Amino acid sequence: MAALTVTIIARNEAADIEAAIASVAWADEILVIDSDSTDATAALAARSGAHVTVRTWPGYVAQKNFAAAQASHDWILSLDADERVTPELADEIRALLNATPTHAAYFIPRVTWHLGRWIRSTDWYPDYQLRLYDRRTAEWAGRYVHEGVQVRGSVGRLRHELQHFAYRDIADHLETLDRYTTLAARQMHEDGRRVGFVGLVAHPAFAFFRNYILKTGFRQGTAGLVISAMNAHYVFLKFAKLWEMDQTSEPGPRTPDVT
Q1: From CA 219, how far away is CA 137, in angstroms rounded?
Q2: In 10 A of CB 251, how many CB atoms?
Q3: Domains of the chain by range and CATH?
Q4: How far apart, in Å, are the Cα atoms of 9 and each of 4, 30, 65, 149, 259?
Q5: What is the mean pLDDT of each run of 10 residues along the chain (259 residues)?
Q6: Cα gap 201→165, rounded to integer Å
Q7: Is residue 29 within 8 Å of 3, Cβ to Cβ?
């Protein structure tokens, strides 16, 4: 059986870290890379059986690659503190590693709990995450947001879900949107992307249509409506911040918006 290291990068995750570690207690090794938490994250992780390393935050990609480099085993399951591995997913991963894995990495479907229910509609589902990988043939890449695992080899898919407890409430959701849209806008701006009036109207409108109609958010009643609107709001903020950056920056190469 191939041994498995679970890696978790964290900062101020005292409310979630114990449950995350408990969900992977069956793994051969659990590593928590703590980014100078000011709460009890590191102490709680150590008490839960994880090996804890404190390291100043260098960015998502660098921190996740650092975590994988510290692992004692080549097969890595990268977990966020607000995620849980279900018993069914644990059994599937163990069965896979008990045999000879046929791929270098695996996508895992993720389902999010929000507004009192599991969200199995909108852009949130199925939210496939490439989290199980062989570090000898894969590593994290990207810049500010939407980092991902780059794999030199084939990629498979697992069947059972990873659970995601992303937001405490709508206020927490809005705070997260503000942070991530700033990073997304910066990344687009550096890539030469630009947006105008038409794009600021069209992109959010289509995002709502995609989430609520095409991705069947309407099936989940008011919760589906709220999440579809929040996802469209994310798109609007991202492009509005991109537009703002263009107004305050020096002229440079541009990739015009297609909308």
Answers
A1: 40
A2: 6
A3: 4-164 (3.90.550.10), 170-248 (no CATH)
A4: 16, 11, 10, 15, 37
A5: 96 97 98 98 98 96 97 98 98 96 97 97 96 97 87 97 96 96 94 95 98 98 98 98 88 50
A6: 31
A7: yes
